[in-house]
Each structure stands twice: as structure tokens, then as C-alpha cells.
Amino acid sequence: MRHWLMLGGVLLIFGTLWWAFRPVASPKKTPASGEALLLELQSPYCLGCVAMKPAVDRLERELRGRLVVRRVDIQSVEGSKLADQYGVEVTPSFIFFDKAGVEQWRSAGQLDALRVRTSLTEPAK
To answer: Which domains does the chain carry?
Structure first.
């Protein structure tokens, strides 16, 4: 009986941690003029998405006012349409749009924060 209680406690702890740190789709945001957009196509069940969440959150806080981060769950209707539209097959996938709304680059699996910062300061090519 003691082992079952311990197992239940461990599962409860892991479930709580997953619930607290899982990636969640963000509400629809439209970048204001002068703001770039980083679109993240993710899934709450993707381990890579969970691993990237703290880095993306930190980047979002640091670049507030210059960058809008939009997270979309690919399992939603909107996310499925966006994944088809942009040909995304891997999560997490990041697509960076400049201030004019033109796609500049994309990355799958991992986000390079330095590349995001550089893209914000350099003019579009």
C-alpha cells in the first residue's frame, strides 16, 4: 500500500509540473506598427516545445514593445491551417516576420535568440 501511495504522489508531482510548465497557445495578437512577429507553432504534448518555453518566455519579456510572440497549438483548427499554409511538419517551429509582415526566416526544433535579436536590429534584406 505504501508503494502505491508513493507512486501516486510522484505522478501527482509530475502532473502538476507538466500543467505549470506546458506551452499554451497565446491569444491572437496583431503586432503594432514597429513590432516584428515571432510565430511559434507548438503542441502542449511536445517535449521540445516544453523545453523551449522558458527561453521563448524570456525573449518575449526582454523584447516587449519590439517583438510580438504568437504561440499557436497545431492541434487547434487555426494551428492546423497555419501549419498547412506554411508547410510546418515539426514542432516547435518558429517563423520570424519583420515589421512589414514579410517572412524573414524559420527554424524548427530550436530557437536561436541571438538570431531574433539580430533580425530586429538589422534591416530586412
So the answer is: 24-121 (3.40.30.10)
